[in-house]
Amino acid sequence: MKYGIALFPNKTIQDVANSYRKRYDTHYALIPPHITLKEPFELIDDERDELILNLKKIANKTKPFQISIQKVSSFQPLSNTIYLKVEPVDELTTLHEKLHTGKLPNNRKHPFVPHITIGQNMNDVEFSDVYATCRMQKFNLKDTIDRFQLLYQLENGSWTVYETFVFGDEKI
Length: 172
Prior knowledge:
Its EC number is 3.1.-.-. Belongs to the 2H phosphoesterase superfamily. YjcG family. Pfam families: 2_5_RNA_ligase2 (PF13563). The strands form two sheets. The chain has a four-stranded antiparallel sheet with strand order 2-1-7-8. A four-stranded antiparallel sheet has the order 5-4-3-6. A hairpin with a 5-residue loop joins strand 7 and strand 8 (about 160-165). The protein is α+β, with helices and mostly antiparallel strands. The protein has helices at about 10-25, 45-60, 90-100, 125-135; strands spanning about 1-5, 35-40, 65-75, 80-85, 115-120, 140-145, 145-155, 160-165. It has one domain (about 1-165): Cyclic Phosphodiesterase, Chain: A (Alpha-Beta Complex).
């Protein structure tokens, strides 16, 4: 089964992201706005319990932290993807690193760029128009992150939460 690890921002940030995603993101119906912490990876059911135990330990040792979004950016020229740029903070980077060490699969394909995708799979003309419009927008979005989620992919390609891991939760 295919799994991934992400965190979901508050409703305000999700509403802002969805105001763009419903028009410009081909994955709009597959997953809510999120910050990917670990790209999709395959796992057999027998390995899931050990993964969950490791994720609980990581969450238990993590303290809540603030994220801030001030602008949009893109992955151009690699792809025509537009995203809300999550300002990098040490706590988020450290969490990402912990999810790629020890017994957890190190499946990184790209450097970690914290973001929330708002548009993807656009042709060059549409990308240029949408990106130019989005860059003129000012954002002042903030959130306190206190949990992350283990997700799994359904047969229709959509993602759903398997388990939520709350930071500092002593129950292991």
